[in-house]
# Entry
Amino acid sequence: METITEQETVIEANDSLEHHSHDEEQAFLNTFKDDVDFDPTQTDIQTKEKPEKMSLDAAAGIVFVGLMTAESTLKMAVHKDFKFDADQAENVAYKVAPLIVKYGGKPPPWLEPYMDEIMALFAVGLLSFSSFMQVRELKKQDQMKAANDDTNKQEAA
# Structure
């Protein structure tokens, strides 16, 4: 069986490469001058069609999913029986839906410069909340363990 050496592979690769003169390379690089404005009419690239606008019902569905997530979070944090009033949640979903449609699910232009700060605040808040929930659960476990220890001591006595 014939094996190809690394040197033969490099030679074969070099034979298939295009070779350009220094002048050709410089002419190519000169096409990227910074002082020349980009003219989109000089390209043959087809522009993408604008995406269809989302329906109000679809946008309201997105908002409703967000509300359900918030409700679940509040059930864990506040009380297991907490729930949003269904009519109010639907009303909120349909009041917020036009904003989702208007901005295409993105933040409004005046808010975009602050998205990094908002996301950082959200991340810190989520970490803080989950840490609070963990501490609360650990304290509950400690209380249950202490109650079991007291019961075991009383039974032993």
Notes: DSSP finds five helices and no strands in the chain. Helices lie at 6-16, 22-30, 56-77, 86-103, 115-156. The chain has a mean pLDDT of 80.
